[in-house]
Amino acid sequence: MRWPKVRELKEAITVILSPRFTTRFPAEPCTVPPRYRGKPELQPDQCIGCGACVNVCPTQALTMIDAVDTQPPVRRITCRYDACIFCGHCRDNCTTQEGIRLTDQWDLATLDRAETRTVHEFELQRCERCGAILGTRKHLIWLADRLGPLAYANPSLVLARQADLTGQPHDLPRSPEGEGPPEPQTADFAKILCPKCKCELNIRL
Ligand code: SF4
Ligand code: SF4
Predict the structure, then answer these.
(1) What CATH topology corresponds to 26-125?
(2) Which of 11, 22, 89, 194 has the fewest CB atoms within 10 Å, i.e. is most exposed?
(3) How do residues 62-109 score in pLDDT, each as one tens digit?
C-alpha cells in the first residue's frame, strides 16, 4: 500500500515542476498550428461563383440560389459557419483553388446567428435565345482567360469576354414568358447560347 502513494507523490511533484501543458487562453491569445482548419471564408476576388464547393459541402453550410427575377439576375452563395464542420472539402474542390479559404479563426461563438452567415452575389449569364442559365459571367470570363486562344472554339466564351472588356451588357431581349425560343436565325451564332440552343442552331441552319 505504501509504494503506490510514493509513486503518486513523485508524479505530482513532476507535474508541478513541468512546464504548463495547457494554453493560458483567454488571458493570452491562442496560436493555432499552421494547417489549422478554421472559419471558412469566400474570397470575392478569386471566387467565380461556380457552385462546385456548394455541391461537395456535406452539411449545407454552403448553399446557393439563382435569383432570376432580379435585374440583373444573380446567383447568391451563402456561407454559414455555424453549420460548418471544417472538413475542408470546399477548399479542396474549389474550381479556382483560391475561391474559399479555411482561415485560422476558431473563436467563433456569438449570440446572434445572423452574424454567422455571409452572402455573396454573382451576376448570372443567361442564354440570349431561350433564357436558360449558363452560369455566372465571372465563370465564363474565367474560362475564356484560362483557355486563351482555344476559347475561340466556343463563341459564347469569347462574347462574354468581349462584353466584359467593352462594358456592354450581353443579355439581349428574349422571347416573352411562356413562349418558346424564336425560330433560329444565322445572327444567333453571334449570341451567348446554352448548349441546347447551340445544338439546335447547328442542326437546323
Ligand atoms: S469546410 Fe466542409 S462543412 Fe465547412 S463549408 Fe467547407 S465543405 Fe462545408
Ligand atoms: S468552388 Fe471556388 S470558385 Fe466555385 S463558388 Fe466555390 S469558392 Fe467560388
Answers:
(1) Alpha-Beta Plaits (3.30.70)
(2) 22
(3) 999 999 988 899 999 999 999 999 999 999 999 999 999 999 999 999
CB atoms < 10 A from the CB of 137, how many? 24
How many angstroms does the Cα of residue 61 sit away from the middle of ligand 1? 6
Tell me how far the alpha carbon of residue 133 lies from the centroid of ligand 2, in angstroms.
17
Other Cβ atoms within 10 Å of 200 Cβ, number: 17
Q: Which one of the ligands is nearest to 62 CA?
A: 1
| DSSP element (H, E) containing 100 | strand 100-102
Question: Could you report the per-residue pLDDT of 117-134, keeping only the tens digit for each?
Answer: 999 999 999 999 888 999
Q: Which ligand is nearest to the CA of 56?
A: 1
Whether this prediction's pTM lies above 0.85 is answered by no
- Separation CA 188–CA 205 (nearest Å): 10
* Residue 198, H or E segment: helix 195-204
- What is the 3 state secondary structure string of 44-89? CCCCCCCCHHHHHCCCCCEEEEEECCCCCCEEEEEEEHHHCCCCCH
8 CB contacts (<8 Å, ≥6 apart)? none
